[in-house]
Amino acid sequence: MTHIYRHALCATAGLLAVTAASAQDIPEQPDTQGNKVSFVKTSQDTTVYKILEKDRSKNVNEIPVPHFAIHTANNKFVMTIGAQINPIIGTDLGNNLYKQADAGINFIPSQIPVPAMRGHKSDFFINALNASVDLQVVGFGGTANQITGYIKFATSGNDKTIELNKAYITWRGLTAGLKNSLFVDESVVPPTIDPQGPCGLVGGTVNEIGYESPSFKGFRFGAALDMPTYYSSSGQYWGRDYQTWRGRTITGETVCDPDAYSMSVPDIPLYVEWGKSALNRIRLSGIVRPMLYKDMLADCRRASVGWGLSLSGNINPVEPLIFYLQATYGKGIGAYIQDIAGLPISFVPKDDAPGHMTPTPMMGWSAGVTYNINDKWQVNVMGSQARVWDVAPYAEHEADPETNVNNYKYGFYGVANVFYNISSYFQLGLEYDYGYRKTWNAGSAHDNRLQFQIMFAL
Question: Do 287 and 307 meet the contact criterion of CB atoms below 8 Å apart?
Answer without folding.
Answer: yes
